[in-house]
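cron nightly-structures :: item 1 of 1
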Amino acid sequence: MDPSAGVIEDGAVAVGGGRVTAVGTAIDLAGLTPSRTVDCRGAVVLPGLVDTHTHLYQGLARSLGEGRPLWSWLTDFMWPYAAALTREDARLAALLGAVEAARAGTTSLLDHHYAPADPETVLAVAEAVEDVGLRGVVARGMAGTPSAVARENGLAGGLFAHPTSAEIELTRDCMTARPPDSRVAVWPGPHNVTYADQALLRASAELARDAGTGWHTHCSSTPRDPETYRRAYGTTPVAWLHEQGLLGPGATLAHGIHLTDAEVRMVGETGSAVAHCPVSNQYGADGVLRLRELRAAGAVVGLGTDGAAYNHRQDLFECMKQAVLVQRLHRLDPEAAHSHEALALATREGARLLGIDAGVLAPGRLADLTVVGLDAPHLTPHHDVRATLVYAARGSDVRMTIVGGEVVVEDGRCTRVDEDAICAEALDRARAVVRRAGIV
């Protein structure tokens, strides 16, 4: 994904000190004497995939809550589930999701975590992600003082646990414990521009600027969001963020689907970022991102899986394919998106969104790599390797995942944690959670 290099046939990558030290053909690198050589013949080596929006705490609710519009899905299903989670439930869900992501070639992720959101749980979730070997961000979810929109639409409840000032201080404490240079850092993560307290959004952006981090929130996910916001405030979510000076390189907006032409320009001109979740957008019938318009305007766009209860898989290969296909179907135009664009979103652009020095295979960059086997029937032949990765490959084709030069998945299994024990405990905890929540 380094624009100057393209695809290197019979290529090789050298790694040392957690970073890429050389990239070229196998002949070019033949003079090196590494401590370990990994034979990747019959495979493709690419930058590690970056998931820019997920909710790992949802992992114990996989396959539940189907067939509801988003706000009903939240109030009638997700809020009761979230309220029933314990700290250990959230930690196990994070371990389960991180294992699934690592096995599917994800090396970095942004977890928007808000259940439970006490500092001890937030830090336990960050530790769980790091225990699996991944890097990334836990955006601490906050609702703050209930807004009129939240109260009027039945959203105010248990997750609005603290007033805005207290939420900011709790997040500040988490960020002190997990600063920007941590393998898994903490960012401010107000729930949603539409129903969060406006003072919370302003304070979150200010806290992020002071700490040198990004901040993360849901924005304009459904047609209802901007309509509701306009009735309450006389403007739209992105227009308000722009008016308040809250957009910019640190602002990362999940979904960002229902934007006007003016809002697309606002996001692009300020260098703000959008986490595009094409599978979950289809699952909830939420809409289609204005992908090329946002990128042409200057926005950073990465790919996200979204949570296991609103997507059901932590597999960016599936998201890459759907990122292309949904654009083509929506516009009835086979030229509306291409495989190389989707691959860029999942690697180079995702790393830009998270602010990490990865996403391309080039000397000096972080040694976050994914190795995908190409010898399966569904990957044979592979004339165009980029198209093969986007349309034919899936997470289960990943042979090896490397983060900072460390092999965290080898032969399709995590090296740091006991996958079988995690799955067994997750099953037990999931049954108990749904009973407590009264979901099934």
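cron nightly-structures :: done
DSSP finds 15 helices and 15 strands in the chain.
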